[in-house]
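Might you be able to review the protein record set out just below?
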Amino acid sequence: MDAHCIKRAPRQAHNVRTVVFSDTKEANELINDLEAYPHAYVLACLMNRQVDANTAWTLPYKFRQRFDSFDFEKMAPLSLDDIYDLFRNPAPLHRYTEMMAEIFHSGVRHIEDIYDGDASGIWSNNPSSAEVVSRFLQFEGVGPKIATMAANILAREFKVAFSDYYSIDISVDVHVRRVMKRLGLVPNNPTDTQIIYKARAINPEFPGLIDLPCWKIGKEWCRPTNPKCNECLMNALCPTSNQ
């Protein structure tokens, strides 16, 4: 999962910034439409497992192409067999086709049963960050990493208002781990728990804000070999800098 790989670009019409999740314009437009299609964002988050970010974030759009709709009231009656067929043909939508088709179907059913078909109920009315993460954790196949990622993007990129942001943790991956270690913030061979709690200690009001900067530094400059220390924003503060 490479869910950090998102950008922001201006929309032409109203000078409002949109989140760029993938290289497909139509897929980005669908996921950004939290008002009409909040379930597109939620279901894309559920698909963020064992595939590259582009595959996960474009899946709702590709599903819509096959089904000719992404309106929730039309999707809700689909059976698991219907979802299987749409995921399989004419080519697999996900690396783990059957498992993720089941998670997709379960996600649709959960949104229908718990939120009356409106996925924005997960984050509406200024809930606490812990409540939002907890609600994502109730979806089949969702663990803390996806749940906190989903809440983090809502808060950080979509500017959805929560009553607090304490429970949105950093999402640990190879880049975040490497940067935190080289900066001397965590010991060598740190556990995910050590990294998460260090982020909480650094920015207790919103630990997840540290996630994207660490990922960007690791992706662009703090590489596993031949790091570009002279270009890195943290060069002057990094105890392992080679410059």
Q: What stands out?
A: The first strand starts at residue 7 and ends at 10. The domain at 7-156 is CATH 1.10.340.30 (Endonuclease III; domain 1). Residues 8-15 have pLDDT under 50 and may be disordered.
